[in-house]
TrEMBL record:
InterPro entries in UniProt: PABS, PABS_CS, SAM-dependent_MTases_sf, Spermi_synthase, Spermidine_synt_N, Spermidine_synt_N_sf
Active-site residues (renumbered): 155 (proton acceptor)
Record-listed spermidine binding positions: 62, 86, 155-158
Molecular function as annotated in GO: spermidine synthase activity
GO biological process: spermidine biosynthetic process
Residues holding S-methyl-5'-thioadenosine: 31, 106, 137-138, 162
SUPFAM superfamilies the record matches: S-adenosyl-L-methionine-dependent methyltransferases
Single GO cellular component term: cytosol
Organism: Halalkalibacter wakoensis JCM 9140
The protein, known as: Polyamine aminopropyltransferase
Pfam families: Spermine_synt_N (PF17284), Spermine_synth (PF01564)
Purpose: Catalyzes the irreversible transfer of a propylamine group from the amino donor S-adenosylmethioninamine (decarboxy-AdoMet) to putrescine (1,4-diaminobutane) to yield spermidine.
EC number per UniProt: 2.5.1.16
Family note: Belongs to the spermidine/spermine synthase family.
Amino acid sequence: MELWYTEKQTEQFGITAKIKQTHHSEQTEFQKLDVIETEEFGNMLVLDGMVMTTEKDEFVYHEMVAHVPLFTHSNPKRVLVVGGGDGGVIREILKHPSVEQAILVEIDGKVIEYSKKYLPTIAGSLDDPRVNVQVDDGFMHIAKSENEYDVIMVDSTEPVGPAVKLFEKGFYEGIAKALKEDGIFVAQTDNPWFHSDLIKNVFKDVKEIFPITRLYTANIPTYPSGLWTFTIGSKQYDPLQVEDSRFFKLETNYYTKELHKAAFALPKFVDDLIK
């Protein structure tokens, strides 16, 4: 008998993957958590029925969240990740020698626990001495912070459950307050095929707060539609004006110096959303 996992991404569309086995399934305090092993994508973390990350394609998302803002900032030392309990963004942040401390604030400790157990290639850097892991509400952490961070990365689920408030204008205003005077933040902002209104609204809100606001994309096959967007808000540095001397060689599988700027070249239907 064959077993398949299907994520229903809209009422009319979904993706499916053949399963080898289920490693773990649990209703946590905050969400339904599953770790399954798939034939095509290896181990897969699923929250509330949505694919969060897989061993095969995780590098795209994690590299693009981390390296775009970190290469844009002139000297990132203190970095905050809101969400991201799988540890992939933290792993990429630590590739930057200027970073002195990376703080991870994840609301659901079970995500951290089972990522360490079943996704060690992703979560393996969470015990690094430069990392401070806090099981806490990222929204409240931001609300209590002021002038603390060089870069803030919002690595959230889609806007359901505890992540809904991470897509509100008040949260972005709090981020601006939590950043230093030359700070940068980035957030994943879903896909333009099924959630164009979300992209449009978030970009508008961020643009009203940050003098430099830009949208970029990446191809992530296990995320809805495969085309994913990220919104960046910066107080001073423009990701399209990074000098060549800022880039240094690091081990990646998706991100490159050339792709850094190319990712901001948007398909017309996406560009139209933010005009």
